[in-house]
Write a structure and sequence with these properties.
The chain is about 35% helix and about 20% strand. By secondary structure, it is α/β, with parallel strands linked by helices. Bound molecules: S-adenosyl-L-homocysteine.
Length: about 350
């Protein structure tokens, strides 16, 4: 059975035509799924019973089950979803002054091996399909009965290691006849898969690109992020410059501050040197401690000093609010789960 949420509207039209039905039926189905947010073909009451039965035979609605929902003292919520094949993934819902943001996962597990991230260290499962990425948003919206305004691809997985499905999901999420979340309200974060940064520049999408930078020289970055051995800083920074030249869009650099590792004034100076003159913004993340992780969060004093140094030297920098750390929902704390060990 095919997951009906894997199709954007144009593809759905072809599918429905293939069933011997008129194309406009696809528009009706798309509206039921993404505007009315129904969970069952039987709720699509302007379709004939015959068509509903045909749909049920060929397609699944892929409704994730909520295994667990945890709420943080700051209002952040973390969902553990059963993705219907024995795996479970986490999705986070955050409240900002400008609306609700969902942090979606793109893979079951992650291959990148960043030393400070909890998604590392557990066996990689598989890529999520486009429909499974989209379903995370629908399932949360159905649960809270509210629409989401922003999406960040910052959950489990490396979005650019599942490039095609992520691009497809973005276009489905973005479709004005469906969820209609503007590309400007969607951010994609990568650990630095250079060839995909070039591909992304050519997508003609208005999404924000975030780059997980975290260090300013190859030695330090490689010690934190093995991906740096494949694409070093010089290649990464060149790709970023080319991306900006091509799209004229600002890049957001993520920099997780770890005590005595990358948080002193020398690091701040090197960061200014690296980013000087680029159309960019720096998002400082107080590093979150993970199980068996060797990195410790910087002191508040150092974090503020670091930010102020960047701002005083022409690099716009903000400190990311730490949301959901009491329920392990903060940056770097999400991990793939196996349904069998849910008791832990
Ligand atoms: N794979 C993508 C998407 C993950 S996004 C990427 O690497 O960009 C999550 C962001 O949180 C990334 O910038 C990631 O480097 C950062 N992060 C991971 N572990 C963290 C931790 N323990 N504390 C703070 N930030 C962390």
């Amino acid at each position: 059975m095919k997951n009906i949420k894997n199709f954007n509207l144009e593809e759905l039209k072809d599918e429905i035509e293939g069933l011997g039905e008129k194309k406009y039926r696809a528009e009706q189905i798309f509206k039921w799924i993404y505007v009315d947010k129904v969970k069952d073909f039987d709720e699509m009451t302007n379709l004939s019973i015959e068509l509903r039965n045909k749909l049920k035979e060929k397609y699944t609605m892929c409704n994730f089950k909520i295994i667990r929902k945890q709420e943080s003292s700051d209002g952040t919520e973390k969902y553990l979803f059963d993705v219907l094949d024995g795996n479970a993934i986490e999705t986070v819902l955050m409240e900002y002054h400008h609306g609700k943001t969902i942090c979606v996962s793109s893979q079951i597990g992650c291959k990148m091996g960043c030393k400070f991230c909890a998604s590392t260290g557990i066996k990689f499962g598989r890529n999520l399909e486009a429909g499974e990425i989209v379903e995370q948003i629908l399932a949360v919206e159905q649960d809270i009965q509210e629409n989401i305004s922003n999406i960040v691809f910052m959950g489990i997985g490396e979005p650019f290691d599942n490039y095609d499905n992520v691009m497809k999901a973005i276009r489905i999420i973005n479709n004005q006849k469906g969820l209609n979340i503007g590309a400007r309200h969607i951010s994609v974060s990568t650990s630095g898969l250079v060839p995909k940064i070039y591909d992304f520049a050519n997508e003609d999408l208005q999404c924000t690109l975030s780059i997980s930078l975290h260090a300013t020289n190859d030695q330090k970055r490689s010690s934190m992020m093995p991906v740096n051995n494949m694409y070093n800083l010089e290649q990464l920074m060149q790709a970023c410059k080319d991306y900006i030249a091509k799209t004229n869009k600002r890049i957001s650099f993520e920099y997780a501050l770890a005590k005595d590792n990358n948080d002193n004034l020398e690091d701040a100076k090197a960061l200014v040197k690296l980013l000087k003159g680029m159309l960019c913004h720096v998002n400082l993340i107080p590093i979150n401690k993970i199980e068996n992780g060797k990195y410790i969060k910087s002191t508040n004093e150092n974090i503020i000093k670091f930010r102020d140094y960047l701002n005083e030297n022409g690099i716009v920098a903000t400190i990311r609010r730490e949301l959901g750390s009491d329920i392990d929902a903060a940056c770097g704390q999400l991990r793939r789960k196996n349904l069998k060990d849910q008791e832990e």
